[in-house]
Write a structure and sequence with these properties.
By secondary structure, this protein is an alpha/beta fold. The protein has one domain: Vaccinia Virus protein VP39 (Rossmann fold), CATH 3.40.50. The chain is globular. The strands form 2 sheets. The chain has a 7-stranded mixed β-sheet, sandwiched between helices. Strands 3-5-4 form a 3-stranded antiparallel β-sheet. The protein binds S-adenosylmethionine (SAM). The site of S-adenosylmethionine has 22 residues, from loops.
């Protein structure tokens, strides 16, 4: 399978300046974030975050999203994940269920990516979000420059392949839009989800489970597994680590371990260095932790027993 992409940074980052001052700033940032926060404060941070998760309120109104959120996870999708799925049903059109889609950036990213990688692949993404207004907005496929460009990893190639531009408006190309449909659905309503979407070989529910209370997140996870065909794949970045280990082991899911650290770190790009102070924060990658592969993987396969 062809799977090579040029990840030249497109995002308009301020130039670092160079020189001694910049080197000093980068060294200071490294010491503060990687040494002080990630190592010296780690036991305290883990303890505080666990307590926060037990006690805090969550919100279903948090709709942050962006295009090209994790390019390495997309590589995983168009590489090992598709290879796994296509050995089972090489000729059938690929049905994808994507829950909690926000304004559609994630669904359009995946559609554009799959078209770029495999122009002949037949696939359809049924995307949904809790809020009907979000689903309608996503279906419109229109984005401001800020929404379209706001990604650490945006590339010129991806922008050109995904959008038609009309002044400051970025409109998703019709040939990408035709691969995606949108509706409203609650990830906690398992019967409705199954009724409406049926099972799909690939089910994606990212950056939503950490917005649910632990019991609800566990229930939603079971719904996601039930929506996935036997020998299907689940993508779930944005889920509490302890619960991820517990639920993926309980459901006997096997993690995709390729590029584990890189993918996990990309999913933390928007996490503040003091991650333990926000419930949606996630710990730094800790390879020595028990069940590290289940803990940090963002994609899992369901094998028939
Ligand atoms: C942070 S956004 C994630 C968007 C996208 N999946 C991504 O990863 O970029 C969380 C989304 O979950 C949706 N959401 C919250 N609770 C939900 C529920 N119970 N069922 C379905 N969607 C929900 C919100 O409306 C919001 O659009």
């Amino acid at each position: 399978m062809e799977n090579s992409v040029n990840y030249q940074h497109y995002s308009a980052k301020l130039p670092d300046g160079g020189g001694e001052a910049s080197l000093f700033r980068r060294a200071a940032k490294f010491i503060k974030n990687r040494v002080f926060y990630d190592v010296l404060m780690l036991p305290y941070a883990l303890h505080r975050h666990r307590r926060l998760l037990r006690d805090c309120d969550r919100t279903s109104e948090h709709t942050y999203t962006c295009f090209l959120r994790s390019p390495s996870q997309l590589q995983l999708l168009s590489g090992p994940i598709l290879e796994f799925l296509r050995t089972e049903a090489p000729q059938e059109p690929l049905n994808i269920t994507l829950l909690a889609c926000s304004n559609g950036a994630e669904a359009y990213t995946i559609a554009s990516w799959l078209r770029l990688q495999f122009p002949a692949l037949a696939f359809h993404i049924q995307a949904s979000d809790l809020h009907p207004a979000m689903a309608e907005r996503a279906a419109a496929g229109l984005f401001s420059a800020d929404e379209a460009l706001h990604s650490e990893y945006m590339t010129k190639d991806f922008l050109e392949a995904t959008f038609d531009r009309d002044g400051q408006l970025y409109s998703v190309k019709p040939q990408i839009r035709e691969h995606v449909s949108f509706s409203s659905a609650n990830i906690l309503d398992g019967a409705d989800l199954l009724d409406r979407f049926g099972q799909a070989p690939l089910v994606i529910a990212q950056n939503v489970l950490f917005h649910l209370k632990p019991a609800d997140a566990a229930e939603a996870f079971v719904n996601i597994v039930n929506l996935t065909t036997p020998r299907g794949v689940i993508m779930v970045e944005g889920m509490d680590q302890d619960l991820r280990v517990e639920m993926t082991q309980q459901c006997k899911l096997e993690p995709f371990t390729e590029d584990l650290r890189t993918i996990y770190n990309e999913t933390r790009v928007h996490t503040p260095p003091n991650w333990w102070q926000v419930y949606w924060g996630s710990e730094p990658f800790l390879p020595f932790r028990a069940h590290a592969e289940h803990r940090y993987a963002t994609a899992f396969r369901k094998e028939p027993h």
